[in-house]
Amino acid sequence: MEAVRIRAIGYPHRKSHEQFFSAYKAILPEKDRRIYNDLNSFSGEAACVAILENLSSALDLNDIKVGKTKVFYRSSQLSALEKARNQAIVAIITHIQANVRRFIAKKHYRVLKAYNQRCLEALEQRNLTELRKLLKTFQEKSIELFIIKDAKILVQYLEAQQRIAEQLQAAIRSRNIDKLEGALSQAAKLKLKVMF
Q1: Rounded distance, CA 16 to CA 188, Å?
Q2: Per-residue model confidence as pLDDT tens digits over 125-166
Q3: Helix (H) or strand (E) holding 66
Q4: Same domain assignment for residues 12 and 93
Q5: What pLDDT digit, counting tens, does each position of 67-91 carry?
Q6: How confident is the model at residue 196 (pLDDT cuts 50, 70, 90)?
Q7: Which of 35, 44, 129, 180 has its CB 3.0 to 4.6 Å from that of 171, i.e. a possible disulfide?
Q8: Of residues 82, 50, 83, 85, the one with CA closest to residue 66
Q9: For residue 154, what are the β-bridge partners?
């Protein structure tokens, strides 16, 4: 019991420089972390002092002492150190997540840009087969581009145009005047004009 009381009066928490640095290095800015993380030139005391200086506003430095081989601190400072470490880890994780999201977004953007370019080329060439294939791909992959509306309109127009051309050819081959007039009236309704 007496040992517990004496320990409570003193510095009940103690870690070697390496343990302290390993536990709380996330608190340091990345540049400093790299400097002190180099095992060939690791100076435990300097690394621990750097961590404590970085937290000087959140800690009572009178309750923390850096010795030649260990760091001693009171219980009141343990919670402040843990809180600072947790905040630093959350910031690091957020930074990593942001970079991963940026990478994924860039990759997705490149894919959309390529699809957009293919769609533009198919629209310019009035390539019905390629437009159908692209529209099917867009629907399967849930891709939304502004150009899709134009592609759908052109596909409908080209399909109608193709259907009327087939009807005209069939009417000419059969020499049926009624079929020819029907195909011509559909063509007039379609208002055969150049789109785009």
Answers
A1: 90
A2: 888 888 888 888 888 888 777 777 777 777 777 777 778 777
A3: strand 64-66
A4: yes
A5: 888 999 888 888 889 999 999 999 9
A6: very low
A7: 180
A8: 50
A9: none
Helix locations, 126-176, DSSP H: 128-140, 147-174
Structure tokens at 28: 């340091």
Tell me how many domains the chain contains: 2
Do the beta carbons of residue 115 and residue 135 sit within 8 Å? no
Q: Which residue range(s) make up the domain with 180? A: 127-196
Q: How far is CA 127 from the centre of its chain?
A: 34
Whether residues 69 and 131 share a domain: the answer is no
Structure tokens at 159: 């399909």
Tokens 């309109």 belong to: 153
pTM of structure: 0.60
**Can you give the length of the chain in residues?**
196
Give 3 or 57, the one with higher predicted confidence. 57
With left for phi above 0 and alpha for psi between -120 and 50, is residue 29 left, alpha or beta? Answer: beta
DSSP H or E run through 192: none
Q: Would the pLDDT of 3 be above 60? A: no
Q: How far apart are the C-alpha atoms of 54 and 180, rounded to whole Å?
A: 88
| CATH number reported for the structural domain that contains residue 66 in this entry | 3.30.70.1590
CB 130 within 8 A of CB 118: yes
8 Å CB contact between 17 and 71: yes
